[in-house]
Automatic annotation (TrEMBL):
It is found in: Cell membrane. Gene3D superfamilies: MetI-like (1.10.3720.10). GO terms for cellular component: plasma membrane. Residues 1-21 are annotated as: Disordered. This is Carbohydrate ABC transporter permease. Residues 93-285 form the ABC transmembrane type-1 domain. It comes from Streptomyces californicus. CDD domains: TM_PBP2.
Length: 300
């Protein structure tokens, strides 16, 4: 029996004594965890609560929306149907989809070759070309709006349409070119050299090798352009304000707010319908978006 007890005591793990230093370390780690997560929760509430307020107000009745209530007494889902039945709202949706969709496709298609040339080609004037692209990023659109308007409205007679906003995107976007160029710099040149050894030309190398590896960067510039076009208010105000049939959601929402300035529930419902596509697109594409934006700062 004595031997058995001795064997049991010897095999039992030794418990490390709790020293004041270990207790202080655990307390510090706990306080650090609480501080970090508290700041994260506070930041999340800072961004989420306004959106929650807009959604809850959009579901209130006409009378309750004018009170200080924070939650609806009855959930008025018909408010969204009333917004869709408003004259012109579906037209604004169609115009916005045309503007954002066509503009995004044209920007991506036109920016990829320029970014590829600036990132992988060696030619005289390459640095000067890059500086010109960067300088265009620093040029506010308000500086060139008058000559641009005179050209599109007077010379091309396209005032009252969205074409003055869509057509220039076929010639590239400075920010998209710069961002994609930074991403293409992270692609090793060995892949391009191997493709050329196998007989690929520059165009085939771009399509078969570079584009599949540059999907995160392409997704990033596509999302940036889509969000910018979807939320654009200045451009439609300049070129399409005189023609209600060419209004977009961002500009039409201002008119909707003026017509329903006492119906806060309908105004909030229209706001939710304008924001919902952007939130949905970012939710499904956030992984590629974050990866593309992160990798653009690795090199260059």
């Amino acid at each position: 029996m004595t031997r058995l007890l001795d064997k049991t005591d010897a095999s039992a793990p030794a418990t490390a004594p709790r020293t004041p230093a270990s207790r202080t370390a655990r307390r510090t780690a706990l306080l650090h965890w609480i501080a970090v997560h508290s700041l994260g929760v506070a930041a999340a509430l800072f961004f989420v609560l306004p959106f929650v307020f807009v959604v809850l107000t959009s579901l209130m009745s006409d009378q309750q929306a004018l009170t200080r209530d924070l939650t609806p007494n009855t959930w008025e889902w018909d408010n969204y149907a009333r917004v869709f039945r408003t004259d012109g709202f579906l037209v604004w949706w169609r115009n916005t989809l045309l503007y954002a969709g066509a503009g995004t496709v044209l920007t991506v298609v036109s920016s990829i070759p320029v970014a590829y040339a600036l990132a992988k080609f060696r030619f005289r004037g390459r640095k000067l070309s890059l500086m010109l692209v960067i300088s265009m990023m620093m040029l506010p659109p308000q500086v060139v709006i008058i000559p641009m308007y005179l050209f599109w409205a007077k010379q091309m007679d396209l005032s009252g349409t969205l074409w003055p906003l869509i057509i220039p995107m076929a010639f590239g976007d400075a920010f998209s070119i710069f961002l994609l160029r930074q991403f293409l710099l992270t692609i090793p040149n060995e892949y391009l050299d191997a493709a050329k050894v196998d007989g690929c030309g520059e165009l085939r190398t771009l399509i078969k090798v570079v584009l599949p590896m540059a999907k995160p960067g392409i997704a990033a510039i596509a999302l940036f352009q889509f969000f910018a076009a979807w939320n654009d208010y200045f451009g439609p105000q300049i070129y399409a304000s005189e023609n209600p049939a060419a209004w977009t959601l961002s500009y039409g929402l201002e008119s909707f707010k003026g017509a329903h300035h006492t119906d806060w529930n309908l105004t909030m419902a229209a706001t939710v319908l304008v924001m919902a596509p952007v939130i949905a697109v970012f939710f499904f594409a956030q992984k590629a978006f974050v990866e593309g934006v992160t990798l653009t700062g690795v090199k260059g």
